[in-house]
Every structure is written in structure tokens, then in C-alpha cells.
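Extended Data, record glutaminase
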Amino acid sequence: MAVGVLALQGSFNEHVAALRKLGVKGVEIRKPEQLQSVNALIIPGGESTTMAKLAEYHNLFPALREFVKMGKPVWGTCAGLIFLANNATGQKVGGQELIGGLDCMVHRNFFGSQLQSFEAELLIPKIAAEEGGPPSFRGIFIRAPGILEVGPEVEVLADIPTPSQKAVNFSPNESQEENAGSENNVIVAVKQGNLLATAFHPELTADTRWHSYFLKMVSDTSEDASSSSISQSTEDQKNFKPQLYDLPIYQQQ
């Protein structure tokens, strides 16, 4: 099994390291033809506008869209979530090109600026049921997007309560409006067919359950799924050093 990691900008090294910890080769992808050598793709977090400009420069968008249409598993984290969305709002002037495929509306900087990054305990019943471990996951949100709407075929894997001062109504043609006196749950992780998306950064933690879950998606869609296995590498585990962030804890109000 070979899993590609889009390596234009952002936390692609951390994803490659997490895959290595699970005994899977992560292949750095920078050119369209490199997609032909991988079974699946991870689009990492980073600066989405910069990543879009680099992807356009390398003529990657047509190949990325075709990769998604072929039914190959693709996982987008943070900026990667924005890329996979069919619709995005809160973008910079002029917008940015999207890959699409995920039936949802994403707000690009729903949780604010870099200074408003935070950590939060997320309930992940499906991931915990399939991968074991505790019922929650400590999500790291860095200038994170939020999923405002999802289509009927999209499965919600995690959401987070949003305090009243952050509860907002967005549409592509409207500015932000405060929705005082209410509290909404903002979706932060979804799955739709061959697509997985998270608004947070699992690659920046030592918890590899999201990566394991994605690798099972890869196995389920692979022609040789019955003979594929994911082995643990003791040496890789010993050398793996996750990049941990000490961010403020998300306070519900």
C-alpha cells in the first residue's frame, strides 16, 4: 500500500511520519503524474490560498479531480477539507480553486485567526468503535475551517459546540452576522464515500486512530484488500516524534 501526501506546503511531513508509524509508505506528491503510483491521497493542513496557487502552477487540479472521481480514498485535513468541499465561503477576494467532491459548505476561517487556535476534546463514537481507544479525541484546531452544511450522503463523524458569540449564519454572498443567544454544533469531521475530511490536525498528535481509519478505507477500496495488511514497525514507533502544540482549551460558554 502506498499513500500519497500532497507536499506543496503545510504539514505533509507529519502525515508521512504518522503513516510510517503504521508501517505504510507515504509518497510526497508534487506533480500530476505522481498520483498514478499511489492508492490514496492525503491533502494536509496549511495555507489554503498558497496551496491552491502552487497546485494551479503545477497543473494539479485536473489530476486531483480525476483522482477523486475514480473513487480512490482522499482525506483532507484543515486546508485539505476546504479543497475537497463543493462550496466554500469566507475566502479571500477572488476566491480560490477547489477540487470538490464533498457535498458540503465550508467556512474557510470559521474559528478565527492563527491567534485563536485551540484544542478541544471531540466525541468520536464511530472512530472509537472501529479503532478502539478512548471515546474522545483531542483535536488541534489551527486557523480552522468549520462545516456549515452537509448533503444527505455525508456522514458526520464529529462536531463541536460553538458559543453564542461564535454562532453565525453564513451564505456565500453575505457577511458574518452575530446570532446572539443561541448555540450551534459546528461539524468538524465527515465522511462521504471515498472522501474523509477533518477540520483539525490528527497528524500533530500521537493518536493515530484517524490515520488507521483512513487506511481501512484504502484497504476496502483496493483490489487486493484481502491480502493487504497494516503492520506495526517497532523501530519507526521508537523514532516517531509527534509535533505537539500547547494551545488553549476550547471553553464552552
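Summary. Confidence is low (pLDDT under 50) at residues 164-182, 224-253.
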